[in-house]
């Protein structure tokens, strides 16, 4: 087992004193690094300086404040306000979002110097009012929220600066350590010595991994004479297993996805927990209002990034994020940022019929429901009945009234029902994209898994394609996603579907971020269109490892069974559920006893439909046993 412990890089944002202290240290560190030409990093020194806060207890007059600020500004390094304004804009700019007007606008107001809202001591003493519905006061309201978010922003900038300084130091370290033709591989004696102690020295392993990666990336110049590439790779893989705790089998599979240095970044990123993120439920609130409410409860947050209008990243909270009144009221759901992506790619429209084939516990179903503004109909299916409990609970809490929950093996679609406008297949997978969440994946996955899981995924994807109406007026799309980074579960599955179903083509996912899917891998060629699919890695976007592919069905196929009557089936399912009061505006009074009763009634109705009298006396168990014995 590996000796490395996963660490969570998220900490509480600093107090002002901590911040000032860290800044002084950082400035000194930066200055030291600038003095060393080999590791000069212009980006860190070009970073805008942050304005300091006063420490005096006594309130200052306006004049005193202006005087003090001028003095402080003189003493500070020159600030590139344009860069500062654009950095802030890129973090918070959501000007595209017309509908919800859901934004954290921290652009400077007229007459203000951009950047002055950083560490304004006035903001510390002001009370934070709730957002008002009054349009005129919105600008002030935004300022208040921005003030509250400044800490979060400063923490983020801090983290970035720390990272840059660390990277610069690492570069120097590596440059110092790796000399051309240096001996990097350990001798037999050294290895025997390492083995004797039982636990390996992590520093030795780490340094050696860095050195081997350097050699592999410039083999001609840096390799020792007489040593092969395979020898270096073999040692590196063993060190990865010892250091991070992977089975040799999985370490090798993951290593082969990347260049040696990128592989190291990937393994490192798997040791760090991803940020805690929440998705605003736009069926109940707007992100801006939710952020304000949470900030008032002592939650430190900021938007995830410009690519999502509904996500918030939580840095730190004085209250449990899964138990706030806003959470209980269904205003948000705790959801990994990567899970937003397939829903955004599917882009369901209002009034469409959508199938979510593997939907429990419902993070994506509830997002689809919100995107459809609770119109149309979503069939939320999952083969695992136990998991549909949390699916139903989430659907209720978030107030999604356009969903019907079912639990079929999704390979039975479209026989169950077909003719959907869009289908999401968020497939069961190996979980190699979420190792930071579930360390057991490092050692539990075997070769068999990467045969059996893709086999199921291929069957499910064909069912998904066959369940879509090629003639849908508004849709005709299928999105396939996994939280795996393995080619066998991603490109290979999609390529298989393209070959088996020539009536679909790959289309752009419409996602702003992501790396292009592989068009070939280790000698295997896929359709060139595979580059339209998207890959996500923890080390590139700080999200879980993920994969998203989007298909458009361009023609029906003989496999599209039972398309006819799909609308009628849906109407019947709806009527059943409405009759049983499952679909209604307020799910708050959902309780198990009532649910049991409804299920009993549903069973009775179903028996009646089959021509069986549900009230007919059941044979007693002893009579049934006797009948059985008689038959024998
Ligand atoms: C990745 S999870 C789905 C997560 C879900 N989409 C969400 O966002 O909350 C995969 C799901 O597939 C379900 N599953 C596995 N095999 C299935 C099958 N043959 N048919 C339908 N669902 C299946 C599992 O029970 C599991 O809930």
Word description of this protein:
With 632 residues, the protein is an alpha/beta fold. It has 24 helices and 15 strands. The chain has helices at residues 16-35, 42-46, 62-75, 81-92, 121-125, 138-177, 188-196, 202-217, 219-222, 229-244, 248-255, 260-269, 287-296, 325-328, 340-346, 363-371, 385-397, 441-444, 449-466, 491-500, 538-541, 566-579, 592-609, 621-631; strands at 276-280, 299-303, 311-317, 332-334, 353-356, 377-381, 403-406, 422-426, 477-482, 504-507, 515-516, 520-521, 524-525, 534-536, 546-553. Strands 5, 6, 7, 8, 9, 10, 11, 14 and 15 form a 9-stranded mixed sheet that branches. It has a 4-stranded antiparallel sheet with strand order 2-3-1-4. A two-stranded antiparallel ribbon has the order 12-13. Helix 8 (202-217) packs antiparallel against helix 10 (229-244), helix 10 packs across helix 11 and helix 19 (449-466) packs across helix 20 (491-500). The structure holds S-adenosylmethionine. S-adenosyl-L-methionine binds at residues 358-364, 382, 409, 426. It is found in: Nucleus, Nucleolus. Belongs to the class I-like SAM-binding methyltransferase superfamily. RsmB/NOP family. Residues 93-124 have a biased composition (Acidic residues).
